[in-house]
Amino acid sequence: MPEPLQVSTPVVSDPKASTPLIEITGATVCRGDNRVFDDFSLTLSQHESVAILGPNGAGKTTLLKLLMREIYPLWREYPVVRILGKERNDIWELRRQLGIISADLQEIYSPEALGRQVVFSGFFSSVGIWGHHRLTQDQHEQVQTVLARLDIEDLAGRPFGELSSGQQRRLLLGRALVNAPAHLILDEPTSGLDLAATFQYLQTMRQLIRSGHTLVLVTHHIHEIPPEVTRVVMLNQGCVWADGPKSEMLSEARLSTLYGVKVRLVESAGWYQALPV
Ligand SMILES: Nc1ncnc2c1ncn2[C@@H]1O[C@H](COP(=O)(O)OP(=O)(O)OP(=O)(O)O)[C@@H](O)[C@H]1O
Ligand SMILES: [Mg+2]
């Protein structure tokens, strides 16, 4: 395992412990011709790291897009989605409060942006750096600190499009961390990473949780759920199919039913792995 990572203390979005990160009540969400959610309700706390599991098409990415205000539910006469207690959020402020890392973001990111510009772009929630973007001395220093902390200073001058998937992912993690967000939103963060890069990434995630960040982790890979994640929400066909403490949710019977295939579950030191029977 790599050396422990020193991470900045997150900016706590709301000092009042009771305000949920997201509160969804009776949401109907359509994407194209598909009604993905129908009367969907779920509350995620600001103070609990959660893993969201579910088969392909269950609605996991749609849920993250609701959280990032990239898509909206159909209008109701009451607030359907509140994020950090607000019915309406300043999108740019929100995207700085919630650090997101997804394969989507990696795909659309400008290939010509240099590594340090990728990290810079976290300040503007953009997918590249443009002429009107100006950085303060403080921000320059923060970028340097993040590059050093993630041990990716060697990537600072290299174009994003010429990096391996794991190197790109680490720059995107830097982009998410540069604002010291309290919450990190991860959509299948280790897909495409080799074993060493996966372990390093998972170690970083654990340290982030321990230093006060909250993770909302969408994954198909049971083995990438850090031991510090305490709650598991299982989605199926646009519904919350099961929701509870990780120790109860991660059972062979539940996973077998959720994915429709017999699963053997192995646990070691708080990590789980699903195996075929
Ligand atoms: N842009 C889109 N237009 C129309 N339908 C969409 C769109 N994006 C997603 N969907 C549909 O919404 C449903 C939920 O998709 P979503 O991407 O949220 O699933 P997911 O749980 O993230 O799946 P995966 O594990 O494959 O990433 C699926 O039925 C999908 O076909
Ligand atoms: Mg998805």
3D architecture notes:
The protein has 277 residues and is an alpha/beta fold. It has a single domain (22-276), classed as Rossmann fold (3-Layer(aba) Sandwich). Helix content is 29%, strand content 25%. The chain contains 9 helices and 11 strands. It has helices at residues 60-67, 91-97, 103-108, 115-120, 137-149, 165-177, 195-210, 246-249, 252-259, and strands at 22-31, 34-44, 50-53, 81-83, 98-102, 183-187, 214-218, 231-236, 239-245, 263-268, 271-276. A 6-stranded mixed β-sheet has the order 5-6-7-3-8-9, with helices on both faces. Strands 2-1-4 form a 3-stranded antiparallel β-sheet, with helices on one face. A two-stranded antiparallel ribbon has the order 10-11. Strand 6 (183-187), helix 7 (195-210) and strand 7 form a beta-alpha-beta unit. The longest helix has 16 residues, at 195-210. The chain is globular, with a radius of gyration of 19 Å. The structure holds adenosine-5'-triphosphate and magnesium ion.
List the helices and strands and how they pair.
Blueprint: E1 22-31, E2 34-44, E3 50-53, H1 60-67, E4 81-83, H2 91-97, E5 98-102, H3 103-108, H4 115-120, H5 137-149, H6 165-177, E6 183-187, H7 195-210, E7 214-218, E8 231-236, E9 239-245, H8 246-249, H9 252-259, E10 263-268, E11 271-276
Parallel strand pairs: 3-7, 3-8, 5-6, 6-7
Antiparallel strand pairs: 1-2, 1-4, 8-9, 10-11
Bound molecules: adenosine-5'-triphosphate and magnesium ion (MG).
| Main sheet summary | 6 strands, mixed
CATH architecture: 3-Layer(aba) Sandwich
The CATH superfamily is known as: P-loop containing nucleotide triphosphate hydrolases
Q: How many strand elements?
A: 11
Count of domain modules: 1
